[in-house]
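Office hours follow-up: a student asked to see two folded examples consecutively, so here they are.
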Amino acid sequence: MTTFNDIFRKSFVEGFNGSVPDLESIIVTMAITLAISVYIFFVYRIYTRKAFYSKGFNISLCLLAVLTSAIIISVQSSIVISLGMVGALSIVRFRTAIKDPLDLIFLFWAIGIGIICGAGLGQMAVVTSLIVTAGLFILNIIPDAKAPMLLVVNSADANNESEITAVAKKYASACKVKSRSIVSGKLDVIMEVRIKDGEELVRQVNSLDNIISVSLLSHDGEVTF
């Protein structure tokens, strides 16, 4: 007696119109994928020339696109392979930390190219790669906003803050007290200032009465616009 499960299983398997691609199609698809992945290799090498460059990661990007394309071609040919592939990949755990957020862009770029080429959309892969490349270099041209600096002042007089603030506002476009502390009658204050040249600011603050030390530090914190 034929049950509903048998009907569903038969219709599902027979409804999967997967076909095994011929050797010529496989070679062309893999060749296109390899060409674009080599292009990604050189784009990553050029883009990261001023930063930390990892040749091993770059090679991984190139081969990842090829492997992804091969997986997509295999999945299209058989429902059994596709289900087995899902089960196999579900147990894989990648624990390599991504040091630069932009590396994620290149990682998804390589995977995306492999999927697109494996699906037989070579033209779309080329257009996508050109758009991503243009976006990377055009956005990289936009200058970074200058991060504020930290003015650290140590004074022997706890009442010197108003004078220090007045001088800081005179030479800085923006001034904000980030920290203040008084210990044994001495004042320690940290101000966030936006200034192009801090030499005159440090000199003027140091010329105030009861000033023990003045430091102007740069930091790699968040940039506010």
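And the second, which I mentioned at the end of office hours:
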Amino acid sequence: MKVKPLGDLGVMAVNNRTEKDQPMTNSSNDIEALQSEAEDFRQTFAEVRDEIGKVIVGQERVVEATMTALFCGGNVLLEGVPGLGKTELVKAMSQVLDLKFRRIQFTPDLMPADIIGTNIMQTDEHGRYRFEFREGPIFTQLLLADEINRASPKTQSALLETMQEGTVTTGGYMHTLDQPFFVLATQNPLEQEGTYPLPEAQLDRFLFKVDVPFLSRDELNEVVSRTILKPVVEIHRLMNEARIMQLREVLAKVVVADPIRDFACRLVLATHPDSDFATEDVKRFVRWGASPRAAQALIKAARVRALSQGRAHVAFDDIRHFADEVLGHRALLNYDGQAENIVVTSLIQDCVTSLPEEAA
């Protein structure tokens, strides 16, 4: 998105301002302040990313997406084979960001009360019985839901309210979790025996679904060198919860022009087979497209990416950047798509490349 210079008319307008034109000066100051906040966000984002990089080798895209979701206030579903550092990533983030961290190992016998907590009967000093709520491991700030698809749908549904509202309701009382609250769930794409596919309602509550690729030769050598042949690297705390919430407030100030907002909406509609913006492959292989949450996620993620590059406005490329992570798990294949093993992200990329920036 190009910004045109003011030119001679702009200079004359600035030089000829009077007292009644004071809002023009304030507007200029606001722009300078926002640009300063964007630059501060860029520096902070880079520092946190580099500090996490001391522990996590490679996986730049995964780290970027996870950090973006955290600043957006969203959740992430990581899909990858065991041993790629998914757990280490969450631990490193909790240390660098100084957030409370808990891990839940999801198993078939896990119950909702094992996650959110339960009411137990206690006696007071007078011998009278009363119920007391004992908090479960969900009462944290950074929650790792390891192998989430191994738990039953009943147990998985215990996370729905918390992932969307940041609250837990039990025994007729609603408990509010400390902010920021962030769920990072993992699942193994290879072992599907004894697992329960995540329902669409829960998938939609993940801002991103991120595929964690296997390491390259150089990266694998570096992992072995860091973990076996060299001393353990210490990482330092760079932020706290107050600082994170402060940076989240900057997101609302990032400018999203009407054509860019409409581009994000058209991109979401392009995943619906009955839409005018859908490609031929989407019409053939997709049963249902992304939800309105996807459009919101595209804008949120684009704002973080703009700020991470020191810009106070969103560009078209910012919308495209996280299209796979936002839309890939929200577009559902029909029978033909499943039978032909269609890769959803390839359909998303076709939508991204074929969709014009300017609306017809």
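Two things to take away from it. Residues 1-26 have pLDDT under 50 and may be disordered. The longest strand covers residues 117-123.
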